[in-house]
Each structure stands twice: as structure tokens, then as C-alpha cells.
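# nightly structure sweep
# worker-07 picked up a monomer target from the shared queue
# config: single-sequence mode, recycle default, output format = C-alpha cells
# input follows
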Amino acid sequence: MPTNHEPKTYMKTEGDINLTEARSAWWTEHVDDAARAYLQEDEDVFLHQTLSTPCLNVLTSCEGIYVEDMQGRRVMDFHGNNVHQLGFGHPAVIEAVKQQLDQLSFCTRRYTNLPAIELANKLVTLTDGALNRVLFAPGATSAIGMALKLARAVTGKYKTLSMWGAFHGASLDAISVGGEAAFRRGLGPLLPGAEHVIPFNSYRCEFGCQDEAHSLCLKPIEYVLEHDGEIGAVVIEMIRNTDVQIPPVAYYQKLRELCDRYGALLIVDETATAFGRTGKMFAYQHYGIEPDMMVLGKGLGGGVFPMAALLVKEELNKAQEMSVGHYTHEKSPVGAAAGLATIRVIEEENLLDHTNRLAAFMKQRLQNMMEKYSVIGDIRQIGLLVAVELVTDRKTKEPAVKEAERVMYSCLARGLNFKVSKGNVLTLSPPLIITEDELS
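# output follows
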């Protein structure tokens, strides 16, 4: 295991990192010699990076809402990298992938295939036809890149406006519109024209908004759109996934109006929130608006196959003379089969209704905990996506960073895995197939 050193301040704000004394204590107390040997082998061969290598432990299997490590511990996974709407290894998705592998495992360039066409049509249907052109990609980071290219081609403007603290992927173009320091810092010039503003935050509003619509939060966006005059697209996570920021309806309706007024496309990144996580198929459907483009990924492949998509309005189908994506695995029949199976399970098992029922149950349980424990400063929830923000004092809202890390490792030792965001926010994202008994 690596020698410990004090992580830089900005690293502490990004998540449960792998360079703290608590992580070393976990390795000592909960990882046996056999697993430790594999972790060392992993550390010796993979590039080191914060939030990843060195790793926490070695997994050997996953099923349903559980992952299992080399010590035989089954752990409920409330993290799952947001691919696990159906949990892990859902039989319908596995069977669809197996059948497709036997029939058509790859679609070579300049050809199409029936699963890809069917999945594209199904995604269009899920938007009620509002977004009716589709392009697939191997991952959502690539889909973000396609959206940025298309926005430039259609609008003739190269500038974008996005949020500090946002995450849109790890490639150079994606981190340019993203705003997390752990991905951007120290890399020098990024994509030109990528402008940023302070994001919405209901608990720590930088503008001291007193109205429910948080109208002051929109002032910087309006100012930049008006005075720059060359912003071609606003790129935004509908719901900030990591620390679960949930803007009010009026916020997005006003943002839609601002984009229309100043000629900017609205690109929504639903990589982590689509396919039922928020209680609707897509998070934008809570807001009574239509985006110009939507990026999908993660859960689209059912937690089995990497698959992403870009959906856009018909009037944006104007880039025939350029290659917007052109990825080798663009129309993967196996990925499409996984995606179709995922959507079919969500619909046939009524997982949207199930999510909303369990969300109400989870909300009440967490409210009871908040009344009991003063360290809980705020709870933010939409569907089965929850943030529990820990503070040392509810009046000062001082982030309880050490306490959050202790809670995380204590829960992990008891069989529950989740992500820590911003250093003090417990992000709970259980599989949508979880039962009330398991949730309680």
C-alpha cells in the first residue's frame, strides 16, 4: 500500500479518496493477506489516480443489490457508479447479451443492425418524440464530445457555458466543460471558449436566494449569455448527482427561456440520472421543459455493457458532411440488446412506481435520523437519489469531513457501500430493484 501523505485541499472535496489514514486503517483491519497481494499487484500495474488506484478491495462477484469481496463479505452497493438501476447481473440483461453474442456480436462500419435501430426508436419514444435523432457511443464522455461538436456545427458558435463543480466525463473536452478540480487542475489550457458560472446549491446558496425559484442563481447565467453573445450551448447536469442538487421547476423553466432568448442550445447530461433514478425515466421530465440535446450513459447498458447515447431535436440534424461520432462500437448490437432489455425490465416491472413508493419510505426514515442526529445538516432527495450532508454545526454549516469518512467506513464494515461527495456528503443511490425490507 502507498505511503500516506496529506491530500491537497481540493482533493478532499471531490469524494472518498484513497490517500487518508482511514483508508490505511481499512486495509489493515478488513483486507486479508490474499486480497492485499492482489491489491499490490493492481497498484503495481495500473496508473495511480485519486478516487481510484490504489483500490479499496478486490471484488469477486456481484448479484442483485450486492457485491462480494475476496473475504466473502456481501455488501449492499448504494454507489454502483450509477449503472445499477437493475442491480447487477439482471437475468434479462444477461440473457439478451448472450443471445446477441451468438447471433451478431459486432456491426462493422457502414452497416446497421436491428437491435441498434430498435433501441434508437425506443429512446425516441421515451421522450415522446421531442428528441428524435439518436447517435450511440461507447461511453457518455464520448457522447458529451459529440454534443459539443454538433453544437458548434449547428450554431456556428464555439463557446459553451457550464457549471463549476460539474462532471461531464474525463476526456479533455469533457473536463473543459466540467468543473471538478481533481480532473482539471495542472493540465494547462483546456478547450477554448468553455465558460463557467457558480452552480445552483439549495443548502449553501452563494447568492443568498430567499425565493423558492432561486432567481438570483440565474443572474450570472443570464449575464454571461447576454454580454458574451457568443455562447452556443449551455451544458448542465439536470440533477447534480454527486451531492444531489435539485433545482426547482422555475429554475429550469427560466433557463430554457434564457437559452431561447440568446440563441444557445440546452444540452442536458443525464448520464447518472436517466432510466428511473429520479422517479421518472429522465430527470428533465420533472420540469416541463424540452432540452435540445440529452446525453445518456451508465445505466443504459444495464450494468453489464458500456453503452451511451446522444439524443437531439430534429432541427439539429444538420451535420451530414462531418463525422460527429464515428466510433468503432457506435452501433454495437450487444450494447443495444443490453439497453433494450434494461428498458423492458423497467417498464414490465413498473420500476418507476416502485422507485417513487420506496422514495417516500426512505425519506421518512432519513427524516427520523435527522431528528436524532445533529450531525445531519441537510437531506436532499429525488426518487432513489439521496444526499445526506454532514456538518459539525447546523448554524455555521461547517462541513463534517472527518465524520463523513468515519461513517462511510463504519457502514462499509457493516455491509453498506456508498460514495462520499464534496468531502462531507453521503450520496445514497440504491438499485431501483431494492425491496422495502432490504432498504429498512
